[in-house]
């Protein structure tokens, strides 16, 4: 059964089309004016609802979530009405009941995906933001296997939803696919999908349609100008790094080759001893004097925690010692004033300076990092994957420190 909103829309459109067949042109004009007034009224009404979506969620949960169902319809309406409807849904999606209603509605998800892939969609960034919020609902992981109609020719993708999203993220950066969008918030969607085994498998599997491992499409953005994109990419990489069996691929220079993409963002313009410099990765040598490390210490923390995950294997530890990761971590610890980031550095150094069984000290040059802090130091914990379910949307996450309560042994929930 159609809702009241659907009936009103259908009735309005029927009358407009019927009156166009009339010979009375002036009457047609009156009907057009009335239709425009109805649209203007709807535009104002929806716009005025936005503040209530932040402070009075309960009014949208009446009559078995009927207001939410109507808002889903408005997403397909005119540009401004759709924009305000999506904004309201973004705010409401922090409520668990509404989140489930939105994320479990396959038709609604398909509507969002169809609009998102259109190169002229004016609300693409808001749709990406909403999808990022909906990924807090675990069952949205079905998007990893969902098939869709063929992508627009400009996207040059296949018919899988996840591949279309990835290609949007890559090809749409900086407004190159859609002048009104950069798709940065898809990075948050990917980070939450990577909490699941199915998601991590996708990011690590070479895709048939383009012969590329999806994670390698994202690594190039660890130094992107957008903080949102960098943060989401860093969290995605860390979550995928929980696949310990794939660490050889992470470390291999002819495969994912993750280390330069983790180390470059945490490096500044420091000068190192010549011996240390020559042992570092080629991409890390002779950096320009104006090189700056990432301005967000929580992103640096996430990269250091990913390095910590990669020390799970002996190969990972040996490579990091060989390429002189310690001096880089030492300078980062010294220059960045952020307690959680420094704790992550200290945990990593503890592992790198540890004696391997049956060997002498691996690097006599490594010293324990020290600092003054009122915050107690927390010891490393056993690695475990944790999926936190519903924990609020992107707005509250951006306003807080997303890494403030996470250690290097936890799945990142952005």
Automatic annotation (TrEMBL):
User: For bias kind Low complexity, which ranges apply?
Assistant: 376-387
Q: Which InterPro entries match?
A: ARM-like, ARM-type_fold, Hgh1, Protein_HGH1_C, Protein_HGH1_N
Which family, according to the similarity comment?
Belongs to the HGH1 family.
User: For bias kind Acidic residues, which ranges apply?
Assistant: 398-408
The segment annotated Disordered runs over 357-414
Q: Protein HGH1 C-terminal domain: from which residue to which, for each copy?
A: 306-360
Q: What is this protein called?
A: Protein HGH1 homolog
List residues of the Protein HGH1 N-terminal domain. Answer: 116-301
